[in-house]
């Protein structure tokens, strides 16, 4: 009889702790489940990325002169993307596929122009970097693939498109401060 009581109590204790653990954990992703960054979060992550890049490059005083133009181009690109994201969230989606195609073309043109400005601002900074700084620049921006010393390729370590911050939508490069996981250009 005592054996049955002890075994029953142990089984209830194990089952109870499992249920409590599962309830506290809140599912597969724990606290991050369903979390979407707000505008303040995105700005904070962006500022952190810019600061990390600058710190990682360890710029000389001569190289510092090229930093402000680069930083401003990054901020301009980010602002454009955040404004577009906000506008898309506030505007009703159009049912007309041709209009959606035109909107997409406009967005791509604007992004292309902003990326060209970023490339133009990056060029003098990048040319002033030594080989170690160039390598760190590529790695910190996730511009280097796994065969070039980067962290991982486009499809993630396992080829499944999953990264630390979730699906591939967060996979563009560090300069895209819209997403906390770092985005490729």
Describe this structure in words.
By secondary structure, this protein is an all-alpha fold. It has one domain. Helix content is 61%, strand content 0%. The chain is built from 6 helices and no strands. Helix 2 runs antiparallel to helix 4, helix 2 packs antiparallel against helix 6 and helix 4 runs antiparallel to helix 5. The longest helix is centred in the middle third of the chain and has 32 residues. 12% of the residues are buried.
Short description:
With 185 residues, the chain is mainly α.
Please count the beta strands (DSSP E, at least 2 residues each): 0
User: What pattern of helices and strands is seen along the backbone?
Assistant: HHHHHH
Give the low-pLDDT segments: 147-172, 176-185
Determine the structural class based on helices, strands and strand pairing: mainly alpha
| Portion in helices | 55-70%
Percent in strands = under 5%
Mean pLDDT over the full residue set: 73
Q: From the alpha carbons, calculate the radius of gyration and give it in angstroms.
A: 23 Å
**How many H/I helices?**
6
End-to-end Cα distance, whole Å, is 69 Å
Biggest sheet overview: none
- Shape designation: globular
What's the domain count? Answer: 1
């Amino acid at each position: 009889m005592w054996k049955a009581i002890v075994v029953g109590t142990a089984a209830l204790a194990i089952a109870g702790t499992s249920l409590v653990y599962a309830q506290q954990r809140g599912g597969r992703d724990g606290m991050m489940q369903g979390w979407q960054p707000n505008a303040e979060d995105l700005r904070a992550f962006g500022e952190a990325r810019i600061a990390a890049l600058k710190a990682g490059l360890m710029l000389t005083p001569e190289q510092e002169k090229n930093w402000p133009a680069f930083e401003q181009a990054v901020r301009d690109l980010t602002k454009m993307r955040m404004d577009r994201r906000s506008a898309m969230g506030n505007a009703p989606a159009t049912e007309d596929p041709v209009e959606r195609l035109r909107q997409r073309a406009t967005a791509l043109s604007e992004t292309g122009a902003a990326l060209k400005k970023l490339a133009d601002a990056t060029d003098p900074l990048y040319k002033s970097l030594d080989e170690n700084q160039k390598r760190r620049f590529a790695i910190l921006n996730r511009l280097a693939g796994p065969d070039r010393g980067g962290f991982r390729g486009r499809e993630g370590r396992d080829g499944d498109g999953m990264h630390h911050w979730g699906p591939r939508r967060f996979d563009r490069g560090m300069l895209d401060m819209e997403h906390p996981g770092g985005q490729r250009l």
